[in-house]
TrEMBL record:
GO BP annotations, alphabetical order: siderophore transmembrane transport
Protein name per its UniProtKB record: TonB-dependent siderophore receptor
The TonB-dependent receptor plug domain, residue ranges: 43-129
Transmembrane is among the record's keywords: yes
Span of domain TonB-dependent receptor-like beta-barrel: 221-645
Gene3D superfamilies, A to Z: TonB-dependent receptor, beta-barrel domain, TonB-dependent receptor, plug domain
Alphabetized Pfam families for the sequence: Plug, TonB_dep_Rec_b-barrel
Classification lineage: Bacteria, Pseudomonadati, Campylobacterota, Epsilonproteobacteria, Campylobacterales
Compartment annotation: Cell outer membrane
InterPro entries xref list: Beta-barrel_TonB, Beta-barrel_TonB_sf, Plug_dom, Plug_dom_sf, TonB-dep_rcpt-like
Family as reported in the entry's similarity comment: Belongs to the TonB-dependent receptor family.
Keyword Lipid metabolism in record: no
C-alpha cells in the first residue's frame, strides 16, 4: 500500500469529482489477452460480489449498455443496446437459457452469481452462435480448481447475508475437492428468501416477494493428456405469489396464485487440443424449463407447462501461420431440438373458445453448419464467417420450414501501439418466434398458417475507436477509451393472431385466447445509438465512466390499426424505448484489507407507451450506491453496501404500465442496506 501514489493523482481527477452529478462512469475489467476484443462487454464478477448481487439481473445493472426493468424479479427483463434478451443467444456452460414462458413473466434466467467465472457479452455477429439476433451472453461456471488456495485440495465456503429492504435472507454453501492434479468436483446449495420490497416513498410493492433456490454440481477433468472434460448439473427454482393474468402494479390478494418456475441444465463439454491444428470443442446439453401454477385460479389442482431443449455443438479451431499471416479457422456444426407441452382444463379457456380449441405440443429444431475465421496481417485483423441454418417449426397449425445463410465480417486496424479502429457487420437468423411458449400450445381446430413462415432475421452494424495506454500521467497507470456507433435491425418477427376479433382486429393471444394464425410481422424493429466509455487505473485507485444513447422505433404494435395485434408486445419481447444512460464507478483500496466503491446511475426521462397506445413521459432518475469489502484474514470476509442511498422513488422506462392506467406502474426498490459474511476453510 502506497498512499503517496494515490495522492499524486488526486489533482488530475478533482474536476471530475466536483462535477460528479453530471458525469457518468462504467466498470471495465482489464484482462491480458492477445486477442483484440473490440465488441465484448465483460462483467466484473469480483465487484458484483462486493455489491452483494443476488440474481443474474442484479449483476448486470451497473453497465451503461444494459438496462433491467420490471421491478419484481419474476418480471425483470434484460435489454442489451435496446434489444430485449429473448433475442440474444444466452447460455450457461453451453446450455441454452432465456425462454419466454408466459406473457407477463420474464425470461427464465437464474443462477447464483457467486458460481460464475466468466460472463462474456458479445455484441458483434459470430457464425458459431446460433439464434443471436442481437448478440450473446455466455456464462461459464467455476471449476473446483478455481476454489483452491495454496496447497489445499479440499475445503468449503459458507456465505450468508441480510438485506433490510424486503427483509431478504440469503445463504450459500460450497464444498469442493480436487482429487489429484487434474480432477476436481464441487457442490453448491444456495437460497434467497425475500418479502415484498418497498419503493422510495415507503410503499410496499405487492407481489414482489419470492423464494429462490439454486443447486449445482460440477466435475472437471483438466489438462489430462490434452483433454479437458467438464460436467455441469444445475437447477434454479423461483417461486412466489403473483398474477397469472398480469403482474401489474399492486394487484389484489385475491388475484394472486403461487407460481413456481424452474430451469434445470445438464451440460457435458469436452476439449481435445494436442496441436495447433486440432483444438476440438464438443458440447452436449439439455435445458428443461417448467412452469407450475399451484391451485390455479383458486381451483384445486395444478397447471404445469414444460419446455425442453436438447443441443449438440461440435467445432474445431485450426491455428496456423502462412508467411506473415496469422490465422484461426473455426469449423463446426450445431443441432438444437425443442419440445414443449402443457396441462389444460376447459375452464382455463375463454367461453367462446371452449369448443374450438385444439391442444398441441410445440416442436422445433435447428440444424446448422458454420465457419468463422480470424486473420491477422501485421496491424490489420479480419474476422469473417458464414453460417447455414435449416429450421423446422411445428404447432397445432401445422409444420413450417426455412433455411438461411448468415455472413459476417469485421475488421480492426492498429493505428498506433495504443489505438485501433474497428468495424463489424453481420446477419443472423432464428425461427423460435416472439410467441410465449404457453400460448403456442392453444390453437384453433382445423386452422393453418395464412402464409409460409420465414425465419426471423437481423442485420447488425458497428464502427468504433479504441485506445489504451500505460504510463500516461504517472508511472504504471493505465487508461482506456472506447467510442462506437451501432445499429441493429430485426424483421420477419414470428407473431400470433387469436380469436378475440372485433372490428376486423384480433389479439395476439393475450388473456388466454386461442390462436388461429401464426405469421411474420411486416414491420422492422431498429435500435441504433452510440457509446462513450473511459476508465483509469492506478495502484489502489480505479474509476470509469460510460454513456450510452439508444434510439429505437418502438411503437405500439397496432398504432396504425392494421397489424391485427391489440397489445404492445415490443417492450415485452422485442426492445426498449429511447434511452440515455450514464454510469460512474469508482473504487479505492483504503488499506490492504479494506476496499470501498461508489456507483452513480443516471437515466434521462423518456417517452413510453401505455396499454392504450398513449405516449407519456416517464421521468428520469439518478441513484447512488456504495459498498465495502473488508478481509479480516484468509478465512473471513465482510461485505456491506447501501443501494439507492438517497431513497429515490423511480421506475424504469422498460417497466410496463398497468392496463389502461398510463401513470400507474411498479417502482423500483428504495434504500436497501446489505450485509453479508463469507467464511472459507
Amino acid at each position: 500500500m502506497t498512499h503517496k501514489k494515490f495522492i499524486k493523482i488526486i489533482p488530475l481527477f478533482l474536476p471530475a469529482l466536483l462535477l460528479g452529478e453530471i458525469t457518468v462512469l462504467d466498470s471495465i475489467k482489464i484482462e491480458e489477452k492477445i486477442e483484440r476484443k473490440t465488441n465484448s462487454i465483460e462483467i466484473d464478477l469480483e465487484k458484483a460480489e462486493q455489491n452483494q448481487v443476488n440474481s443474474f439481473t442484479d449483476m448486470l445493472k451497473n453497465n451503461s449498455s444494459i438496462e433491467v426493468g420490471g421491478g419484481a424479479i419474476n418480471v425483470q427483463r434484460v435489454y442489451l443496446r435496446g434489444i430485449e434478451s429473448s433475442n440474444l443467444n444466452i447460455s450457461l456452460d453451453g446450455a441454452k437459457q432465456g425462454k419466454n414462458m408466459f406473457q407477463h413473466r420474464s425470461n427464465e434466467l437464474g443462477i447464483n452469481p457467486d458460481l460464475l467465472k466468466v460472463v462474456d457479452i458479445k455484441t458483434s455477429p459470430d457464425a458459431s452462435k446460433g439464434s443471436a439476433l442481437a448478440g450473446s451472453i455466455e456464462m461459464t461456471t467455476k471449476d473446483a480448481q478455481d476454489f483452491v488456495k495454496g496447497d489445499k485440495n479440499y475445503g468449503a465456503i459458507f456465505k450468508t447475508g441480510y438485506n433490510t429492504n424486503g427483509n431478504v435472507k440469503h445463504g450459500n454453501v460450497i464444498a469442493y475437492q480436487v482429487f489429484n492434479e487434474n480432477i476436481g468436483a464441487y457442490v453448491s446449495i444456495s437460497g434467497v428468501n425475500s418479502n415484498n420490497y418497498k419503493d422510495g416513498n415507503g410503499n410496499e410493492e405487492i407481489a414482489t416477494a419470492y423464494h429462490d433456490r439454486d443447486y449445482l454440481f460440477k466435475l472437471s477433468m483438466l489438462d489430462t493428456k490434452n483433454h479437458d472434460l467438464k460436467l455441469t448439473i444445475n437447477k434454479n427454482e423461483n417461486s412466489g405469489d403473483s398474477r397469472w393474468a398480469g403482474t401489474e402494479y399492486r394487484p389484489l390478494a385475491s388475484q394472486l396464485e403461487k407460481i413456481v418456475s424452474s430451469t434445470t441444465n445438464y451440460a457435458l463439454s469436452h476439449n481435445y487440443n494436442p496441436s495447433n491444428l486440432i483444438n476440438l470443442d464438443t458440447n452436449l446439453n439439455l435445458t428443461d424449463i417448467t412452469l407450475e401454477r399451484k391451485n390455479a385460479n383458486n381451483i384445486n389442482g395444478n397447471r404445469t407447462y414444460e419446455n425442453r431443449n436438447i443441443g449438440l455443438k461440435v467445432q474445431n479451431h485450426f491455428d496456423f501461420d502462412i508467411s506473415s499471416f496469422k490465422n484461426r479457422v473455426s469449423i463446426g456444426g450445431e443441432f438444437q431440438k425443442e419440445h414443449g407441452k402443457g396441462s389444460f382444463y376447459i375452464n382455463d379457456l375463454k367461453i367462446p373458445d371452449r369448443n374450438i380449441t385444439k391442444y398441441s405440443d410445440l416442436d422445433s429444431n435447428n440444424q446448422a453448419l458454420f465457419i468463422q475465421n480470424r486473420t491477422e496481417i501485421g496491424s490489420l485483423g479480419i474476422d469473417y464467417g458464414l453460417r447455414y441454418d435449416y429450421y423446422s417449426f411445428e404447432t397445432g397449425l401445422g409444420k413450417q420450414t426455412d433455411n438461411t445463410f448468415s455472413p459476417n465480417i469485421g475488421v480492426d486496424y492498429s493505428l498506433t501501439d495504443n489505438s485501433l479502429i474497428y468495424a463489424n457487420y453481420g446477419k443472423s437468423s432464428r425461427m423460435s418466434g416472439l410467441i410465449p411458449f404457453t400460448w403456442a400450445l392453444n390453437t384453433k381446430i382445423d386452422s393453418s398458417y395464412s402464409n409460409d413462415l420465414n425465419a426471423e432475421k437481423s442485420n447488425r452494424y458497428e464502427i468504433g475507436y479504441k485506445y489504451n495506454k500505460k504510463d500516461t500521467f504517472v508511472n504504471d497507470d493505465y487508461i482506456t477509451f472506447d467510442a462506437n456507433v451501432f445499429q441493429t435491425k430485426i424483421n420477419d418477427f414470428i407473431v400470433s393472431k387469436d380469436t378475440n376479433c372485433s372490428s376486423g382486429k384480433c389479439g395476439s393471444g393475450e388473456g388466454g385466447w386461442t390462436l388461429q394464425d401464426i405469421y411474420n410481422r411486416d414491420d422492422e424493429f431498429k435500435s441504433k445509438g452510440f457509446e462513450l466509455k473511459t476508465s483509469y487505473y492506478y495502484d489502489i485507485f480505479s474509476t470509469s465512466l460510460a454513456y450510452t444513447q439508444i434510439d429505437t422505433n418502438n411503437q405500439a404494435s397496432d398504432i396504425t390499426n392494421t397489424s391485427n395485434i391489440n397489445e404492445d408486445q415490443n417492450i415485452r419481447r422485442v426492445g426498449a424505448y429511447d434511452s440515455k444512460k450514464f454510469v460512474w464507478n469508482t473504487e479505492v483500496e483504503l488499506t490492504n484489507k479494506l476496499v470501498a466503491a461508489y456507483t452513480l446511475n443516471a437515466m434521462a426521462g423518456t417517452n413510453v407507451l401505455d396499454s392504450s397506445n398513449n405516449e407519456n413521459v416517464r421521468g428520469g432518475y439518478t441513484t447512488h450506491d456504495i459498498n465495502m469489502k473488508y478481509k479480516l484474514n484468509s478465512q473471513w470476509t465482510l461485505f456491506a453496501a447501501v443501494n439507492n442511498l438517497t431513497d429515490k422513488q423511480y421506475a424504469k422506462a422498460t417497466t410496463i404500465s398497468t392496463k389502461n392506467q398510463a401513470n400507474v406502474y411498479r417502482y423500483e426498490m428504495g434504500r436497501d442496506f446489505r450485509f453479508s459474511v463469507k467464511y472459507e476453510f
